[in-house]
Amino acid sequence: MLALQLLDGLEAGTDEAGRGCLAGPVTAAAVILPATFSNNMLNDSKQLSEKKRELLRPIIELEALAFGVAHIYPKEIDKINILNASILGMQKAIDQMAIVPIHIIVDGNKFKPYKNIPHQTIIKGDGKYMNIAAASVLAKTYRDAYMEKIHEEFPMYNWKQNKGYPTLEHRDAIRKYGTTKYHRMSFRLLPEQYSLDF
């Protein structure tokens, strides 16, 4: 059972999606839920089917006191690294909220101070707290929608299905067609090849 929040009042939960992908942005979301919020379906987005995530997204957006979503794109990821890009995305998502939170809880174990607002990192927080779970659903659904859009531009990578994750299909397409402007060039896009000389 997910808990609502750690503190009374305006607490934001934040999470990201797409950190391990070879292509596309890392997408972060932040959500402040009302104290009365309840939803039995809500959970860590990785534990939910795509259908359930799509059902939850409008509910979260309608009932949240505030929410924000931010994409950090591959060029920036390559410049500052994926960890810093993930943290930047979460902070930009908080920036977008119409309400300034009094406390921030973050999925994972890394974050950077944000505007003197106290924060706490929580490992597997998306499976423990509703505001982080809600953020995980928004991050995942917004990122998936972005990947489906750029799939139309480069259908050979089948991002509509693999969403840019390092699947065998995606890596085979990189071998065949090379990379695109959406690929993260600082990532190991293909496993290292070894050859034995006899």
Automatic annotation (TrEMBL):
Named cofactor requirement(s): Mg(2+); Mn(2+)
This protein's source sits in the domain of life called: Bacteria
State the family named in the UniProt similarity comment for this chain.
Answer: Belongs to the RNase HII family.
Q: Does the keyword Ribonucleoprotein apply?
A: no
- Tell me, in a sentence or two, what this protein's role is: Endonuclease that specifically degrades the RNA of RNA-DNA hybrids.
PANTHER family in UniProt? RIBONUCLEASE H2 SUBUNIT A, RIBONUCLEASE HII
Source species, please? Kordia antarctica
Ranges for domain RNase H type-2: 9-198
| Residues that bind a divalent metal cation | D15, E16, D107
Q: What class of enzyme is it?
A: hydrolase
Looking up Gene3D superfamilies in the UniProt record yields: Ribonuclease H-like superfamily/Ribonuclease H
Q: Which InterPro entries match?
A: RNase_HII, RNase_HII/HIII, RNase_HII/HIII_dom, RNaseH-like_sf, RNaseH_sf
Show the PROSITE patterns listed in the entry: RNASE_H_2
What is the gene called?
A: rnhB
Localization (cell): Cytoplasm
Cofactor: binding details: Manganese or magnesium. Binds 1 divalent metal ion per monomer in the absence of substrate. May bind a second metal ion after substrate binding.
Q: Which UniProt keywords apply?
A: Cytoplasm, Endonuclease, Hydrolase, Manganese, Metal-binding, Nuclease
- Look up the record and report any one GO term of the cellular component aspect: ribonuclease H2 complex
What GO molecular function annotations does the UniProt record carry, in alphabetical order?
manganese ion binding; RNA binding; RNA-DNA hybrid ribonuclease activity
GO:BP terms for this protein?
A: DNA replication, removal of RNA primer; mismatch repair
Q: Does the keyword Transferase apply?
A: no
Lineage of the species this protein comes from:
Bacteria, Pseudomonadati, Bacteroidota, Flavobacteriia, Flavobacteriales
Protein name, per record? Ribonuclease HII
Query: Primary place of residence?
Result: cytoplasm
Catalytic activity field? Endonucleolytic cleavage to 5'-phosphomonoester
